[in-house]
């Protein structure tokens, strides 16, 4: 072939390749055209186009001639077709019997390999010009196929975007020169206007009067390309005049080659109401917590106090951010019996009584609490039960006292009934004997004994009355000025006969002292002391009564030579109904209330 013929052939080939359309054509159509041109130009007997399928990860014949109607599939590494695809270079092969010439060329679009173009004919070798043609055809085919893929993807993307925009649950709009050029359906629903109505409106006409100027200036500034915040809230105005809360996110775009603003608007009226209710509920809850009389705190996993209410702050100070073991227990490390991990890990609610660093006792109720950020905390309520415990202890003591009083009452009844009955029996017996007496002297003797018995009974009754009045707190002293020595001599005189019977000598060492107080009460006390000194004394014993003035006080002492009191029993002698040995009660008469009454009178 001459050079002129070769040039004409090459021009013909270039024309054939350039005539392959890339616009307004389907993939199958362009593949058929490529097959046809390959067959006609290269005079091939067999031809096939293999394209890579990502899902099947194989080369699949999309168009072929000379192979029948079956679809050919080439798996990775299977034959020379896959080798050509992997190597991304043209390959010229011969069949095993050297009868067929095979030409393989990768179909590429830029750096991407889309598939392989296969051509075969019998006996005749492919010339160099045909190889160049084949290579150029594959490039043209790859470009056309890629254009089709891109257009298909763009169309699918546009379709998805349009569906997304039209069915979005936020209002989407575009305005240019301040007027709407596009809105989606939800935008129409938000404001109650149709697209036709909105296209004749400026965007600020949908804004409530109080926010209108602000929104207008910000929107126009954004359209001019100025740097303004993209997100903000304002009050919107519906077609029906209703004011609604809106949130907008807007950005500057190009629309038909000119600056415009695209934005998303959401009706947040219900959210605002919910936020307001939530805020009010939060404030109400905070008010309740802060006004609680009980303490409340929240502690994290590191034992750090995250919250304290006013009750705790008042008691311990604002110690938020400090370790709970330091604030409430004064320790340098967590408490050994801390309930934290039982509450956190096991979800238990634990109640315990705890005495804290302030010396008060609290009923601690600890439970699991989850913060809004998902962190697990311990919430604890501390109820001050110090007074309750003290009241319980007082009640317990009162109960014990009541039991003692009941026992005392029982003992008084048993003891006093005997002590009252004894002198009364004696008096009645003496009176009976006086009535039977033959002479006056004997009669007087009996009556004197009856009188003494009744006087003894009167003393017992006086003790009982005094004890009762003192116990009830109704005893009132009759304050007067008197001579102490005279009172003591009167008391000794009344007990003179009792002392004479036991041959007891009474010595009085009392100066003339004028004092102020309850005369009758003091006499009652001195009589009680003298009575005991005589009663528990030995035959022929002594009783010494002395009085001394020390500073502004008068100390009266009564000393005897009687049976004495053991040291361990000294604390008991002023208890009601106490005689230190029951055998002594049988030996010495008395109610056992004398010293108890005397002590209470002195303490008035």
Instruction: Outline the low-pLDDT stretches.
Output: 4-11, 580-586
Q: Let me know the average pLDDT.
A: 83
Might you state the CATH topology name of the domain at 3-161? Beta-Lactamase
Shape verdict: rod-shaped
Please report which band the strand proportion falls in: under 5%, 5-15%, 15-25%, 25-35%, 35-45% or over 45%: 15-25%
Task: Characterize the largest beta sheet: strand count, sense, and whether it forms a barrel.
Answer: 6 strands, antiparallel
Rg computed from alpha carbons, rounded to a whole number of angstroms = 60 Å
Q: Write out the CATH superfamily name of the domain at 3-161.
A: GAF domain
Percent range of helical residues = 40-55%
**Got a strand count?**
21
Number of helices: 18
The helix/strand class is alpha+beta
CATH hierarchy, class of the domain at 3-161? Alpha Beta
Strand order of the largest sheet: 3-2-1-6-5-4
Distance between the termini: 152 Å
Give the name of the CATH architecture of the domain at 3-161.
2-Layer Sandwich
């Amino acid at each position: 072939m001459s050079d002129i013929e070769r040039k004409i052939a090459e021009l013909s080939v270039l024309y054939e390749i350039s005539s392959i359309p890339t616009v307004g054509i389907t993939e199958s159509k362009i593949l058929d055209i490529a097959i046809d041109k390959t067959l006609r130009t290269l005079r091939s007997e067999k031809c096939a186009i293999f394209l890579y399928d990502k899902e099947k990860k194989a080369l699949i014949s999309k168009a072929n001639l000379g192979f029948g109607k079956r679809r050919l599939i080439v798996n990775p590494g299977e034959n020379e077709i896959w080798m050509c695809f992997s190597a991304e270079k043209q390959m010229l092969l011969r069949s095993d019997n050297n009868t067929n010439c095979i030409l393989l060329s990768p179909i590429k679009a830029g750096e991407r390999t889309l598939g392989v173009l296969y051509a075969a004919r019998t006996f005749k070798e492919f010339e160099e010009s045909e190889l160049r043609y084949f290579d150029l055809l594959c490039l043209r085919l790859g470009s056309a196929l890629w254009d089709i893929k891109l257009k298909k993807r763009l169309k699918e993307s546009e379709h998805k975007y349009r569906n997304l925009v039209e069915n979005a649950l936020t209002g989407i709009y575009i305005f240019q020169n301040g007027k709407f050029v596009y809105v989606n359906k939800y935008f129409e629903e938000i404001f109650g206007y149709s697209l036709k109505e909105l296209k004749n409106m400026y965007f600020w006409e949908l804004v409530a009067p109080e926010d209108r100027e602000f929104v207008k200036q910000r929107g126009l500034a954004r359209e001019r390309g100025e740097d303004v915040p993209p997100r903000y809230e304002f009050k919107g105005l519906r077609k029906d005049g209703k004011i609604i809360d809106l949130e907008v996110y807007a950005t500057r775009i190009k629309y038909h080659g000119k600056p415009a603003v695209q934005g998303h608007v959401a009706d947040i009226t219900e959210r605002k109401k919910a936020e307001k209710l939530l805020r009010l509920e939060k404030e109400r809850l905070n008010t309740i917590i802060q006004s609680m009389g009980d303490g409340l705190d929240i502690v994290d996993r590191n034992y750090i106090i995250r919250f304290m209410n006013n009750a705790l702050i008042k008691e311990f100070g604002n110690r938020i951010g400090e370790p709970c073991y330091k604030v409430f227990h004064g320790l340098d490390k967590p408490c050994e019996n801390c309930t934290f991990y039982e509450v956190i890990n096991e979800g238990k609610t634990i109640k315990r009584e705890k005495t804290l660093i302030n010396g008060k006792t609290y009923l601690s109720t600890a439970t699991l609490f989850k913060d809004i950020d998902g962190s697990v905390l311990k919430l604890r309520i501390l109820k001050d039960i110090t007074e309750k415990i003290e009241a319980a202890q007082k009640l317990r003591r009162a109960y014990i006292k009541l039991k003692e009083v009941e026992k005392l009452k029982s003992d008084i009844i048993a003891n006093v009934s005997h002590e009252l009955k004894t002198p009364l029996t004696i008096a009645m017996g003496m009176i009976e004997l006086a009535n039977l007496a033959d002479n006056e002297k004997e009669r007087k003797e009996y009556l004197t004994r009856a009188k003494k018995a009744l006087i003894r009974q009167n003393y017992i009754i006086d003790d009982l009355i005094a004890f009762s009045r003192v116990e009830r707190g109704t005893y009132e002293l009759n304050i007067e000025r008197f001579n102490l020595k005279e009172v003591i001599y009167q008391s000794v005189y009344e007990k003179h006969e009792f002392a004479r019977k036991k041959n007891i000598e009474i010595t009085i060492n009392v100066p003339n002292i004028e004092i102020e107080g309850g005369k009758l009460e003091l006499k009652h006390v001195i009589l009680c002391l003298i009575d005991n000194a005589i009663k528990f004394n030995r035959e022929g014993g002594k009783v010494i009564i002395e009085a001394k003035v020390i500073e502004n006080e008068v100390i009266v002492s009564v000393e005897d030579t009687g049976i004495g009191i053991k040291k361990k029993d000294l604390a008991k002698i002023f208890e009601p109904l106490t005689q230190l040995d029951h055998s002594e009660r049988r030996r010495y008469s008395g109610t056992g209330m004398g010293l108890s009454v005397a002590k209470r009178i002195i303490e008035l």
